[in-house]
Amino acid sequence: MSLAAQLPWLAVAVFLIGTPHGALDHRLGRQLLAPGYGRWWGAVFVLLYLAVSAAALGVWLATPVLALALFLGIAAVHFGEHDSPSGHPLAIAVRGLAGPVVAAAAHPGELKLVFEWIAGEGGTALVPWLGGPGLLAWLCGAAAVLVLEPRPAERLELVAVTALFAFAPPLLAFAAYFALLHTPRALKGSKRPGESWSALLRSAAPLSGAAVLLGIVGFLLWRDQMAAEAALVRTTFWWLGALTVPHMGLALLAKRTSPTAAARSAPGLRRSAAAG
Ligand SMILES: CC1=C(/C=C/C(C)=C/C=C/C(C)=C/C=O)C(C)(C)CCC1
């Protein structure tokens, strides 16, 4: 499948299906901020969230290659925490890095082009690192997880995700992983006891709309400077990067102040908190 043909899938997976799972952050924000700021908690939340996102965007603008490397690392922790039930650091690293490392080994040419779109020409230099030494280290870690992990479902999921990134082209593989595995699981973990799916999605609607609007603005700004394909891919991953930083920071803060409250809003943390 050509890169251009993968783009609609990427856009649907990220902006339509994936957005609501981050757009529930205001619930955690309220728990954290309402006791101190009363009815002003919403304004404080929006200001802090935007400030952290803007700082993350600043890193993308100032040093895109470093930002891409950091993004891959941060995302690995995010995905690994959500998707490895054991909560063990090795399992987290192996699950979280499966996509970048396997895609770099199996589809180096295509990934180089995608990284060039995201971070400029320098971005391509990350691919041989990921697909060479990265792959070797990852294979050792994955072998250890497969031997030591007692849950067949976790072993099977690791094999399935590896196969997905090995056989499907990178952007399509990411779209499938994000829309079919990561987002449903994260949304399910955010559901409060007794809450219906429609109530959950209604609660995510305002911030989802705002976030998608930001994405559209980003795309229109980049579109003047590069081809539409590159603008869409750059916007998508910069946008994900800018929103993932406050999203994870909030979950971390909540975990420190109240592990049970955090567990209700962030499924990855529930597992880690439960694990210790
Ligand atoms: C750029 C890129 C990749 C990495 C994507 C990442 C790291 C996404 C992170 C998303 C997050 C953190 C979402 C939060 O909800 C892949 C899959 C290696 C291959 C295709 C190009």
Summary, kept brief:
It comes from Sphingomonas arvum. The protein is an all-alpha fold and 276 residues long. The chain has 13 helices and no strands.
Blueprint of the fold:
Blueprint: H1 3-22, H2 25-37, H3 41-62, H4 64-83, H5 89-106, H6 108-119, H7 126-148, H8 152-167, H9 170-190, H10 197-223, H11 228-257, H12 259-265, H13 267-275
Tags for this model:
276 residues; membrane; binds retinal; 13 helices; oxidoreductase; iron; cell membrane; mainly alpha
Question: Care to describe what's here?
Answer:
- The chain is mostly helical.
- It has 13 helices and no strands.
- The longest helix has 30 residues, at 228-257.
- The structure holds retinal.
Shape: globular
Number of strands: 0
Give the distance, in angstroms, between the N- and C-terminal Cα atoms.
43 Å
Question: What's the average pLDDT?
Answer: 89
Subcellular location: Cell membrane
Enzyme class: oxidoreductase
Function: Catalyzes the cleavage of beta-carotene at its central double bond (15,15') to yield two molecules of all-trans-retinal.
Transmembrane segments: 46-77, 126-146, 158-180, 200-222
